Amino acid sequence: MPRCWRMTSSRAAPEASAQTFPQPKVNPSEPQVRGRCSWTPAEDAKDSPVMGKNLLTAPGGVDVLSVTGKDAKMPSKNKDVLYRPLMLIRLTLRLLGIVPYTYSRTLQEYVLAWRSVAALHTLLVFAWLTALLITTSVGLVRMFLRSQFLDKSSESHETELLGVVIIVGCLLNAWVEVLNVVLYGHPICKFLNQWKVLVAETSLDPTKGLRVSSIVHALFLYAFVIAVLVVAVIGPPDKLMDIVDLLAQVLFMVSPEWLRQGTPSVQVVRVVVGVVVGHLYMVYKGSLFLLVSICQMLYNVFNCWRHQLTSTLEAAWTNGEAVHTNHGPVHTNHRPVHTNHGPVHTGQVVEMSQLVQSHWQMVQMVRETETIFSSTLQCFYATQVVTLCLELYLIAYRIGIGAGYHGQEAVWQTLIMVQTCIVFFLVSLKASRVGEEAETSVDVLRRGLPYTASDKDKFHFRELTVALTSSPVCITGGRFFTINRPFIITVVGAVLSYFIIVLQLKLPSVSQERALLAADNSTGV
């Protein structure tokens, strides 16, 4: 009798192995194989597309087919499903120093060794950002203690201060991102390895459209930096140069008297400030784009799972109907086909038990995403709302004093505002789609199962009903807030209300100041 062999690994979870192929009782009269191998009769693997061959399961859960004799082949390596789709954004983040883990081709999984070059690079970036955060805190205290910033007659100081606060927000976010990578280094590796297990054990495809989106995200980072360089080469506005000089005083505690000299060393310091700000921006936004890519992967698996659930229920109703013939009604009893051999197209009919197991795995991926990126989301929304308000305040201030934007100032302000809004809506909408797609599956369950369904399918259907309706599956910021469309509307409404109020307050105050200034001039004359 042909046998179906399956290689077991010490790293494989015992419950996963028991679920894939149930272990039969050993017959002493039949020959057995020693070593780390277990077998199941061919009847238990009758759904296999190849009969009479050996079904090998390589470490990591990837099944490959091989035959004995001259046609025997070694199991293929368990390839990383995220390698090609996330290549460009991963290389970008590695250059920035926030990817300490590497993919081991020997172990066929992501590993983190703190003595590796990538991990040391991350630790150096974390030390650098920590030192920069300390000097920035001291520089802010020194700046506010100086009497010149208490002088209300200078109109440019307010604009410079707001620009510095925006950059300090980027620094805080970048530091939190690197700290999160250092603290959750090993959980991140485990999280990435679980995507391989999910793809190997189920027929879900998380990489649909992922490669294109990751390329677009990486190009967005480079495009913004290139645009800033172009503006700097053409000739930055005076307001921007004032902000750069103030950043040099805050970040590196440079004396303002030394900056007024205009020597070549001063220009070098300004270039260094520009490079540091660009690095902070790319670390901050690049980590957010990695979160966006993971949210898209979660959306893909939930979407694919919903189509599988729809196809399975459709097959249950279609195959369970009575077919009338000349000899009376005949009931068809076609079972859903369960397979675990490579990628499967969306909408495949699978067993109800596999749907229960795959849904549990997807929920675990969502929960781990919340755990790893909760601090990222909290810091992002806390600072992003302030950044949007400050940028709108600058616009209201310029409108209030009657000084419009001209030339490069208009381009610069538009560039800053547009990229801030794009990143905010991109993160918010991608994260909200995960919960929306998970809720859509509840409507599919409303169809139910036919009366002729087996008790096993009815039991698993009840499990799915409880799993989908008991607690919502969505992305949250550490359970403090849930990212959905009402939350986005609330934040946008609050920011726009702030802008309208500030604009209304600025116009009369500026008019009153002009009236007082005109009265003083007339009195002096």
Provide the fold topology.
Elements: E1 3-7, H1 14-20, E2 37-41, E3 54-57, E4 63-66, H2 87-96, E5 102-104, E6 109-111, H3 117-145, H4 156-183, H5 185-201, H6 210-234, H7 238-251, H8 256-259, H9 264-319, E7 322-325, E8 328-331, H10 352-400, H11 408-445, H12 455-469, H13 485-524
Antiparallel strand pairs: 1-2, 3-4, 5-6, 7-8
Spatial extent as radius of gyration: 30 Å
If you average the pLDDT, what whole number results? 77
Number of helical segments with 4 or more residues: 13
What is the total tally of β strands?
Answer: 8
Whole-number total of structural domains: 2
Q: Largest beta sheet: what is the strand line-up?
A: 1-2
| Main sheet specs | 2 strands, antiparallel
Helix content: 55-70%
User: What is the chain-wise order of helices and strands?
Assistant: EHEEEHEEHHHHHHHEEHHHH
User: What's the shape?
Assistant: elongated
Distance separating the two termini: 114 Å
* Uncertain stretches of 5 or more adjacent residues: 1-26, 28-77, 321-346
Binned strand content: 5-15%
Task: Determine the structural class based on helices, strands and strand pairing.
Answer: mainly alpha
